[in-house]
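Example (one chain per record):
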Amino acid sequence: MESQIAQYIPVLMLFGLASAFAFGTLLFSALAGKKGYRSRIKDTAYECGMEPVGEGSARFSVKFYLVAMLFILFDVEVVFLYPWAVVYKDMLEQNAHLIFGSMMIFLLLFLVGFVYEIKKKAFDWKS
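Predicted structure:
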């Protein structure tokens, strides 16, 4: 037990060194940094010679986030489907019906979610 804890000492030393470096550079830059007069013009953002107008970031529509969640849904499907397809042939020797049935249940649940999104008009890009 004691040897397992001793194996983590280099990791803790590295964590301490990284933390000391991060906070040390912040402290050094605050102490040694040049504190000069800053005008209002100097603090404005440079926008290709144009005066900055409006907010710095625009608000996105809820539709944008819905599309992002749909992308995650399709991405998760591929994450589960690809490894299953790679080892499917080897798994057939053990439990062919169970393996194929479990994937069909997964795809059926995915299809139910897909039909739900179509009914909610999540793929209607015009609105």
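Caption: The chain has a mean pLDDT of 81.
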